[in-house]
Amino acid sequence: MEKKHIITIAGDLGSGKSTAAKNVAKELNYTHASTGDFLRSLAEGRGMSLTELNTLAETDPSIDNAVDNYSTSLGQQQDNIVLDSRLGFHFIPQSFKVFLEIDPAIAAERILKDKEVNPNRRKEDNRSFDSVEEIASSITDRLNSEQKRYAELYNISNNRDHSNYDLVINTGLAENTIERVPEIIIAEYNNWLSNEKSI
Questions:
Q1: What is the DSSP letter of 190?
Q2: What's the first-to-final CA gap in the chain, in angstroms?
């Protein structure tokens, strides 16, 4: 399969994948796309939180179908894009596939701090998000809901499996700063483009 100039970035909640995707797209002058934003628009349109939408998706296949079609169409019809998507590696296999991982406790602390300056974090769930424990509980709920669907719909038992990706970065490490992560991704992506003829 001939590869395209597409980077798909997946990652744990709170790993900074959205920020990384936006910064990589900006540096490369690529288009940024996000299935998270797409899901948020679906949730808002239904007057629901993301957790509620994910729970509904367990019995309403139209939600996953809409997201799947969105991802697949990007891979088929566009080039020079960075897609922030948990299953981008699956729907766009010809992409350069990145996974950002982080310890859940560190992620919860980051999200708690971020919500003070980012009101959109309050829309992630219908709970108050006033403590690390509440955020960690929401993270667990979302991951469990998503993993259940991934296994049933796509036979993906673990979307965090490193073998699914070309590059894995632990963003909880001090050296992997918000500035450094995009630099690592771009450097490895350029190597991938130079060294690989097909995928």
A1: H
A2: 5
As a whole number of angstroms, the distance between CA 163 and CA 161 comes to 5
| Residue 105 identity | A
* pLDDT digit string, tens, across residues 20-40: 999 999 999 999 999 988 988
Write the DSSP symbol of residue 101: E
pTM: 0.81
Backbone torsions φ then ψ of 59, nearest 5 degrees: -120, -5
The DSSP bridge pattern shows strands 31-34 and 81-84 to be: parallel
Contacts of 26 (CB under 8 A, 6+ apart): 32
3-state per-residue secondary structure call for 4-46: CCEEEEEECCCCCHHHHHHHHHHHHCCEEEEHHHHHHHHHHHC
Residues with Cβ within 8 Å of residue 170, at least 6 apart in sequence: 100, 101, 102, 176
What percent of the chain is modeled with pLDDT above 90?
44
pLDDT tens by residue, 38-62:
988 899 999 988 878 878 887 888 9
Contact 145, 54 (CB under 8 A): yes
Let me know if 132 is exposed, middle or buried by CB neighbors in 10 A (0-12, 13-18, 19+).
middle
Token pair for 104? 């859940």
Which backbone phi and psi does 11 adopt, to 5 degrees?
Answer: 175, 165
Question: pLDDT tens for residues 118-134?
Answer: 655 444 444 455 677 77
Strand partners, 82: 7, 32
